[in-house]
Write a structure and sequence with these properties.
Elements lengths: L13 H15 L7 H15 L2 H10 L6 H8 L7 E2 L2 E2 L12 H24 L38 E3 L12 E3 H12 L3 E4 L6 H12 L8 H24 L14 H14 L4 E5 L5 H7 L5 H6 L5 E2 L13 E6 L6 E6 L9 H16 L7 E8 H6 L1 H7 L12 E7 L28 E5 L3 H18 L3 E6 L17 H9 L3 H12 L4 H22 L4 E2 L11 H5 L13 H11 L10 H16 L1 E2 L1 H14 L3 E6 L14 E2 L7 E2 L12 E5 L5 H11 L5 E6 L10 H8 L2 H5 L6 E3 L16 H6 L17 H8 L3 E3 L4 H13 L6 E3 L13 E2 L12 E2 L4 H4 L6 E5 L3 H11 L6 E6 L1 E3 L3 H10 L4 E9 L5 H15 L7 E5 L10 H15 L8
Keywords: Glycolysis, Magnesium, Metal-binding, Mitochondrion, Oxidoreductase, Thiamine pyrophosphate, Transit peptide
Pfam family, one: Transket_pyr
EC number: 1.2.4.2
Length: about 1000
């Protein structure tokens, strides 16, 4: 709290009183300090009765600890010391009268403290009545009454308006002036906090941050801009406005999700880029929804207008793929910044209509580029995310993404968020679309400053955008710009907004476009001439007409023109597109990695359980055997040696949900002391990043997908804690992972590891939703081709399919799957149903011989036992996938049916291994063909496998057999929650497979 120090009359016994003040200071510690009025009364009482108020202040100057904390706070926040106290001169121009009446002392202190409280109220609450809405929609913000901003609330009245008050140090409204009349104080505060900008920042916990923002908004003259900046703003507004008008006239029946009503976004985002470029940024990753996207592509990213116009022509695709609508497309384009003259690469990420789904993907791409460039503080690479107001408040992925912003392995060192706030969500009024005052309130969870700004005040927009860029550069933290505008037309240009917002539409009809408003303002001020402005509009129209004519000559749309993640052509040219190189490695390398993986770090206090785990690892290494954890280490370690960055991300991945991995060892005696074995294999190796994520699937999967799109020379994996938890990331899977290549030509080698298997753990800890991935697969049941025997068949099949889906049963196959993901001449996502019980299963082991040079991924494991020796004796050919194989084999051996029942494991389910399955079908021509799964009939792989096997039998082998299902019956729930019921069901599956009649429940 702030006021000029009111001092008692100097007493003759000053020295004795000073000693008395020190001695009696203890008694002041009994003052509660909880009431402003009570503090004033106590201070007055001290001044009147003990006569040592001045001396207590002087004592405090020498040692703040001698007074109670409340008085310490009181004295600490005093900016100007009157007259001469402790050798400090009084503030110039401030008249502090001699005060003898204690009541006068109380009034003076109270008034100064009240003024200070009023200033703080404007800093905290001024934004609530700021003029940020161009339409001034109901309720009128100008009519909102905030009691804290009134004189009466603080015990002040109009008689105080012309009194001069010294200014506390937390405000900069005075500039070099130490004191101002209250009337002028209020005038300046209202201009700063209640004008076209509303600043929300006082909730931030760090004083340094609040102080920085105050200086950037309160200092007199700080918001002024140059004449050249004004001209630049007008030029950018002109292009934004005229492009929308041109598109509207040329394609009146086309959806474009125009920017009319929020055109200030274009000069605003360019101000962000200009400022960031001047501060050293040379790469900007951008995400945004469809509102205004075409304008950003053209006037911010400077995509050639001819290419933009071709998207309206309805042309066919020049290459394979389904493509996407024009307002979802991305790009990657280098421009020369017109202000700094420096090159800046602008990447706009492709985004579907799930508006905020792209947010974590943008962060992942930005983080990846920072990582590979060694940009450890985000000085060169930054991200900008634009949002719609309704989506920002309504989509949970916004919250998830904000909570990644300061996590060590996920931070992008500050993101600038711009909300293009048109104050309506499709047809939904904001009063029924959110429960918070602002659409931006979610950003407060990370204490991000929020700048609300009137979109019809381009200069205010320019200022907050510059400040936002400077904030990000200074503090490396997120910041939000709430650009408040409106939507001149409906949700899209074919939509009738008056159905649901008639009053708003009437206001919009009367609202002059911001470009015209600003042009008139600058012309009236003499900044630009009307004739020059008119000519600039005509020149831009001529330029658009020329591009329109040239676009008419194009015959196809080239997808490569719209890539947001272009990879170097050398990556594709250097690969063998016919065969897959061997994924095996030298046995000596396997032995070395396994020994290092089992090595106990020196000078490290390990948990006794970790010691046991390391002992087991050493035993396995000595026997040249790998369990699942060892296979992971061998695969990833061998890739690290080859210069491939390996990143494993997800909930609890460092230890592993099932405590099998332990890739981060923790010292039991020193906090934050860890050892990561795979980062200590060789002096020169690629980095291994293993990082526990926040408890998020949607956000983190999107982040790691974005990370994987940056470089082909990285193995990026996201692991679900349980496969079931992939449910909450389904939007990212549907919109990006599954279809990203078909729509946008985005290549990604992302690996999704989904723990899967029926082990009696209940309906939420059982299924990785295998059936969903198979249903979304793009391979056809009729796609068995005659050239299956050709060397290129496997590569071609993988390339034609949108992703790979596997349910692996051996550590060696996992090893090869990881290495094949990097060996392929292209990238497709890999979905693996990873095991749970098999992680430590005694039979789920592989020898090093299964991983040496010359070995490869087994798409299927054929029958190799007695049934294979005499195929004619086999009565049942069982195809299965996953850990149920081990249970079937155990049951078969127990029933002594090894010569009658053949077991074939399908490891790579998609793309379907037609060639190998056909070989097994032909090998056992007299056997009944069945598919056995532990999942329910409406789940798992059955509905995917059935048409493919039947097509093989009927169309390609002229075989009358049909595959039959054995497993649990269809169920709405993925698993029972009762352990006994689970065991009964599992036993029934095994019995039915062995031809022992039983009801499968």
């Amino acid at each position: 709290m702030y006021c000029a120090v009111v001092r008692a009359r100097l007493l003759p016994r000053a020295q004795a009183a000073c000693h008395k003040a020190r001695r009696n200071a203890t008694s002041s510690r009994n003052f509660s300090g909880t009431s402003l009025t009570r503090n004033v009364e106590q201070f007055s009482e001290l001044a009147a009765n003990s006569g040592y108020a001045e001396d207590m202040y002087e004592a405090w100057l020498k040692d703040p600890k001698v007074v109670h904390q409340s008085w310490n706070d009181y004295f600490s926040q005093t900016r100007h010391v009157p007259r001469s106290v402790g050798g400090r001169p009084a503030a110039a121009g401030v008249s502090i009268p001699e005060i003898s009446d204690p009541r006068t002392v109380e009034r003076s202190v109270r008034d100064h403290m009240a003024v200070q409280a009023l200033i703080r109220s404007y800093q905290v609450n001024g934004h609530r009545i700021a003029n940020i809405d161009p339409l001034d929609l109901e309720p009128r913000r100008s009519e909102i009454v905030i009691p804290e901003l009134g004189l009466e609330y603080h015990g002040l009245s109009e008689e105080h308006l012309d009194r001069v008050f010294s200014l506390p140090f937390i405000t900069h409204i005075g500039g070099s002036e130490p004191a101002l009349p209250l009337r002028e104080i209020i005038t300046r505060l209202r201009k700063i906090y209640c004008g076209s900008i509303g600043v929300q920042y006082m909730y931030m916990p760090k004083r340094e941050h609040c102080e920085w923002i105050r200086r950037r908004f309160e200092t007199p003259g700080v918001t002024e801009i140059t004449q050249q900046e004004r001209k630049s703003i007008l030029q950018r507004l002109l292009k934004a406005d005229r492009l929308e008008d041109f598109l509207r006239l040329k394609w009146p029946a086309e959806k474009r999700f125009g920017l009319e009503g929020c055109e200030a976004l274009i000069p605003g985002i360019q101000a962000v880029i200009d400022t960031s470029s001047a501060l050293g940024v040379d790469s900007v990753i951008i995400g945004m929804p469809h509102r205004g996207r075409l304008n950003v592509i053209a006037n911010v990213c400077h995509k050639p207008m001819k290419q933009v116009f071709t998207q309206f022509k309805g042309l066919g695709m020049a290459d394979e793929g389904s493509g996407d609508v024009k307002y979802h497309l991305g790009l990657s384009h280098e421009v020369i910044n017109e202000v700094t003259g420096q090159p800046v690469r602008l990447t706009l990420c492709a985004n579907p209509s799930h508006l905020e789904a792209v947010n974590p993907l943008v962060q992942g791409k930005a983080r990846a580029e920072q990582f590979y460039r060694g940009d450890v503080a985000g000085e060169k690479v930054m991200s900008i995310i634009m949002h719609g107001d309704a989506a920002f408040a309504g989509q949970g992925v916004v919250y998830e993404t904000f909570h990644l912003s300061e996590l060590p392995d996920y931070t992008t060192h500050g993101t600038i968020h711009i909300v293009v706030n048109n104050q309506v969500g499709f047809t939904t009024d904001p009063r029924v679309a959110r429960s918070s005052p602002y659409c931006t309130d979610v950003a407060r969870v990370v204490n991000a400053p929020i700048f609300h700004v009137n979109g019809d005040d381009p200069e205010a927009v320019h200022h907050v955008c510059k400040v936002a860029a400077e904030w990000r550069a200074k503090f490396r933290k997120d910041v939000v710009i709430d650009l408040v505008g409106y939507r001149r037309y409906g949700h899209n240009e074919l939509d009738e907004a008056r159905f649901t917002q008639p009053v708003v539409c009437n206001k919009i009809d009367r609202q002059k476009p911001v470009m015209k408003q600003y042009a008139e303002q600058l012309i009236k001020a003499g900044v630009v001439e009307a004739t020059i402005f008119d000519k600039a509009m005509e020149d831009y129209k001529i330029s658009l007409d020329v591009d329109y004519q040239n676009a008419g000559k194009e015959t196809h749309i080239k997808n490569e023109d719209w890539l947001d993640s272009p990879w170097p052509q050398s990556f594709f040219d250097s690969r063998d597109h016919v065969t897959i190189p061997s994924t095996g490695v030298d046995k000596a390398l396997l032995a070395y990695i396994s020994s290092k993986f089992a090595e106990e770090p020196q000078g490290f206090a390990l948990h006794k359980g970790i010691n046991r785990i390391l002992n087991v690892r050493r035993e396995l290494a000595g026997k040249e055997i790998a369990d699942w954890a060892m296979a992971e280490a061998l695969a990833w370690g061998s890739l690290l040696k080859e210069g491939i960055h390996v990143r494993l991300s997800g909930q609890d991945v460092e230890r592993g949900t099932f405590s099998h991995r332990h890739h981060v060892l923790h010292d039991q005696e020193r906090d934050k002391t860890t050892y990561r074995p795979l980062n200590h294999l060789w002096e020169k190796q690629a980095p291994y990043t293993v990082c526990n994520s926040s408890l998020s699937e949607y956000g983190v999967l999107g982040f790691d997908l974005g990370f994987s799109m940056n470089s082909p020379n990285a193995l990026v994996m996201w692991e679900a804690q349980f496969g079931d938890f992939v449910n909450t990331a389904q939007c990212t899977i549907d919109q990006f992972v599954c279809s990203g290549y078909a729509k946008w030509r985005n290549q990604s080698g992302l690996v999704m590891l989904l723990p899967h298997g029926h082990e009696g753990m209940g309906p939420e800890h059982t299924s990785g939703q295998l059936e969903r991935f198979l249903q979304l697969s793009s391979d056809s049941p009729d796609d068995f081709q005659s050239e299956a025997a050709q060397p290129s068949y496997i590569v071609d099949q993988l390339k034609r399919t949108n992703w790979q889906v596997m349910n692996l049963t051996t550590p060696a196959n996992f090893f090869h799957a990881m290495r094949r993901q990097i060996a392929l001449p292209f990238r497709r996502p890999l979905i693996i149903m990873t095991p749970k019980s098999l992680l430590k299963h005694a039979e789920a082991r592989s020898t090093f011989d299964d991983m040496v040079v010359g070995t490869e991924l087994k798409r299927i494991y054929p029958e190799t036992g007695p049934a294979s020796a005499d195929p004619s004796a086999v009565t049942r050919l069982v195809f299965c996938s996953g850990k149920v194989f081990y249970e079937l084999r155990k049951e078969r051996d127990a029933k002594q049916l090894s010569g009658k029942i053949a077991l074939v494991r399908v490891e790579q389910i998609c793309p379907f291994p037609y060639d190998l399955v056909r070989e097994e079908l032909a090998k056992f021509p007299a056997a009944e063909v069945v598919w056995v799964q532990e999942e329910h009939q409406n789940r798992g792989a059955w509905q995917y496998v059935q048409p493919r096997v039947n097509n093989l039998l009927r169309l390609h082998m002229a075989d009358p057999r049909q595959i039959r299902y054995i497993g649990r019956i269809a169920s709405a729930s993925p698993a029972t929650g009762n352990k006994n019921q689970h065991l009964k069901e599992q036993a029934a599956v095994l019995s039915a497979t062995m031809d022992i009649p039983n009801q499968i429940g």
